[in-house]
Each structure stands twice: as structure tokens, then as C-alpha cells.
Amino acid sequence: MPPIKILSAAQIRTLDQQTISLEPISSYDLMERASRTFVQQYQKEHTDLDQQILIVCGPGNNGGDGLAIARMLYEASYEVSVLVINLEKSSEDQQANLKRLHKKRGVPIQTLSEGEKLPDLANIEVIIDGLFGSGLNRPISSYWGQLITHLNESPARRVAIDIPSGLFADSSSGGIIFKADRTYTFQLPKLSFFAPENAPYTGRWTVLDIQLHQQAMAAQTTAYSYFPIQAATGFLKRRGRFDHKGTFGHSLIIAGSYGKVGAAILSARAALRAGCGLVTTYLPVCGYEIMQIAFPEAMVLTDPHQEVFTTPPDLGAYAAIGVGPGLGTNSLTQAALLSLLKKASQPLILDADALNILGEHPDWQTLIPKNSILTPHPKEFSRLFGQTANSFSRWERLQEKAQQLQCYILLKGGNTAIATPEGHMFFLTVGNPGMGTAGAGDVLTGIICGLLAQGYTSEKAALLGACLHGLAGDLAAADQQMESIIAEDIIQYLGKAFAKLRNSTKIKSDFVFHNS
């Protein structure tokens, strides 16, 4: 599965029209196809035919989808009722579907006009939202906002068709937004689905293939892509029988300080588990015996200082260099990082305190070698590049800085965002909240460093590293629950992550494809 384009709402509307003209197919029949795809997936996940379902439909095509879905669910023996809001002139396809639904005398249909008493939801067990689709261009407030609030306050399970009402597809949202537990979106994910602040509205989302025109879709250009972990399968290098440790690269981990040598151990161990042939750790003297005992597979060089990093080693022997975990921000360490930036010709993986130091000295950022990989979490990102108002402005800053610095910037979080020097951005959803634990970021640094040492490009090392890290965390959580995950578990499951990635057909996807 290749990366999936993330298009704007305007581009999706264009794609709909191109599908209608090029397939060719009527807009009504395209709506039927989308609605049937929705219902097929709904039936797989909701087998209780006795649940009371209320489908709330607006005047546009999102409401038309809702009306078609109501008819199809009724024909499949579900208990369905419909609420149609009387807001403005309805679309032709919405009117056609409403007329067709009226012929199904077993489906109660209620119309709601502005100012009328809000509907009684006492016996409703599922609410399907078809009020306002991705074409919405202003926040919802006043009476219709009250209606959505009323729906949100119901204990019923809430499902959104394509996009929760009130949520903008490709910009920051305001006003009242439908809070879906489950969103079934059509053809491609919406950019807004990747923003952490929108998680309470989208719930778990799945993309349903409604067979929009493939050539028209290929012609659309965008800076944004969703990167499913299956897309990394083709990155994996094959190993030859006569390959050896020298073939798989030598990585250097500059990490650790007094009381934080564990960060260096985690990074070094992750680098070897990610497949590099050799790893050398560069530590203050206090870390020498700890590393030799805790991780004998690693070689150790020591800084002249007893407790902190003060002097970079010779860098010529290393294919990849990871720096930052547990490093501290001592003034001597800051000077040493500056010296490292000036000496290094190979890409660096910069994390943790290396990023915090760069945040204190923004003028040093221009010294970062090209194609380096920065791995900040949101707070580190703010220290590096300044505060932003929301995810959309943060992503713009992320793209801007990746292009300016000619580096890859991996913004960690519930959804990972990776910006490239060319201005492209990839989003990944692999991983789980159990990975929010001390040392997990140090492990990611080591994985990426180990991959880079093996000859993966910076882009592939960042993408594959994020996939392996998240997948290992998911496998660990499946075996021992999120609450009990520690960073070492992520390392221990890396082998299984490689195996699962090679057999990617067994990986659960956020996409459902219905082939005609």
C-alpha cells in the first residue's frame, strides 16, 4: 500500500465531479455507491438489528448520504428513524433520496425547523450524523449548535458520515462540533483527522473506498500524505548470506550524563536491535562501567569529563550519529554540541537535550548538517521553533523549518508528523498511549540511528523508524496492556515488528477497500 494522499475539501469536490464526468456516473448513483459502502462496513461492526438508530440529516449531500443510508439500513432490517432539518433549499440528490425514503413506510421521518423543541432521544441507542459535510465553511452556533450539543449529550453511540458536523476538513475549527465515537470517511482521510485537538470529535476513523476515479485522483497534488505502516514494507533491505557486521554500518550514540546513563543504554540497544552492525556509545566517565555491564554488545568511548559531555570524539568512523538522550544542558555540553555541529559532515539524529540546547541557541540551527533528522515532542518543538496556536499552524511551521534547515523533522505524538526538506509531510497513526513512558523517545532515536547506519536514506530511516517503533509498542500493548509498557519493551518487540511488517497483509488497516 503506497502513501495515501490527503486532499482538501475543495479537491475532493473536484474529484467527485471528475468521477461523475469521467466514469461516467450520475451524482445520485455516486451517492448510492458511497452510502452502500458505508452500510456494508456498518453491518460488519454493528450486528444488533434491534438497536434504535436515529439518522440526523441536513439539506446538502451529507444529508442525502444519511437518507440513503437510512433506507439501506431499513432494508437490512435495522430499526431506523430519521430527523431531517429544515434549514435551506436542499440539494437535488438529497430531495431525491428523501422522496424515495418516504416510500418506506416503516421509517419514521420527523422534520425539525429552527426554534422548535429539540428531539427526544430517550430511547435512541445509535445516532448517525449526516447534518453538515466537508463543505461547511463557518462555525455552527445558535439553534443548530444547540441541536448538536443535544446530540452530544445523549448516551447513545455516535457515528459520523464522512466527517463530524462542524469539523472543518482542512483548517482549524470553531463552534459546536458533533462528537463521534466512530467516523466512516469516504475515499481519503481529512487533514483535520490528524490534529490531536480533533480526536474527541472524530473518534476512531476508517476510510472507505468509494471508487473515485483513480486517474483523476492521481492528478491531484498535495503536500500531505497518510503513511500506513504497510507502505514501509518495501523499504526493508534484504540481507545476503555473506553480509557481516561491517555491511550493516557503525552508529555512534552521544548520550547520557550523571544520573541519566539509562537513556544512552536504551538508544544503543535500540540501534543494534534495529539492525546496525556496530554501535559505539560516547559517554562521560561515570557511564563507562554502567554501559559495559548493562549492554556488553556496545563499545564505549569516554568523554574527559566525569559527569557530562564536553568534547566531541572523532566522527570519521560512523555512518550515523545520534545525539541528545539524557545529555543534559550544562554550559560545557552546550559548547560541545556547537563543536559537534561544526565537525559533523554526516546526518545527525537530534533528540531530547540536543533539541533543548538548539532551542536556547536558535542561530546554531543553521549549522545542522543537511538531511539530519530532528525528533521533537510538542514541547521541544515549541522550544525550538516557537509557540503555535493549533495543529494547523504547527504543521505549517514544521514544513517551513524542514525546508529552511534542509532536514527531516519528526514531530512525535499520538499521530506522528514527518516533514521533509522538499516541503512534503507524512502522517502516521501507528503506536498507542502506553508508549508515553520514560525512555520511549530514546528508543526511537536509537532505531532511526541504526537504520541510517545501514544505508537507509534519511527519509526512509525516519518513516521506517517511526513505523517499527509504533508497531513494536502496539505489539507490546497487545501482550501486556498499555499501562505496563516500559521503553525496554519497545526494544524487545522490535524483532516481532520487523516480522509483522514483512507480512504486512496481517496488519489491521484504517482503510477498507471494496473492489468492484
**Helicity, in percent?**
25-40%
Beta-strand percentage range = 15-25%
Number-wise, the strands total: 19
**Shape field:** elongated
Q: In what order do the strands lie side by side in the largest sheet?
A: 1-9-18-17-16-15-14-13-10-11-12
Counting copies of identical and different chains, the oligomeric state is single chain
- Based on secondary structure, the structural category is alpha/beta
Q: Output the CATH topology of the largest domain.
A: UDP-N-acetylmuramoyl-L-alanine:D-glutamate ligase
**Biggest β-sheet description:** 11 strands, mixed
Q: In the CATH hierarchy, what is the superfamily of the largest domain?
A: Ribokinase
Distance between the termini: 18 Å
Provide the residue-averaged pLDDT.
96
Radius of gyration: 26 Å
CATH architecture of the largest domain: 3-Layer(aba) Sandwich
* CATH top-level class of the largest domain: Alpha Beta
Low-confidence stretches: none
The number of helical runs is 17
Number of domains: 2
Explained architecture:
The protein is elongated. By secondary structure, the chain is an alpha/beta fold. 50% of the residues are buried. An 11-stranded mixed beta sheet has the order 1-9-18-17-16-15-14-13-10-11-12. An 8-stranded parallel beta sheet has the order 4-3-2-5-6-7-8-19, with helices on one face. The model has no long low-confidence stretch (mean pLDDT 96). The chain has 2 domains: 208 residues, 3-Layer(aba) Sandwich (Rossmann fold), CATH 3.40.50.10260; 270 residues, 3-Layer(aba) Sandwich (UDP-N-acetylmuramoyl-L-alanine:D-glutamate ligase).
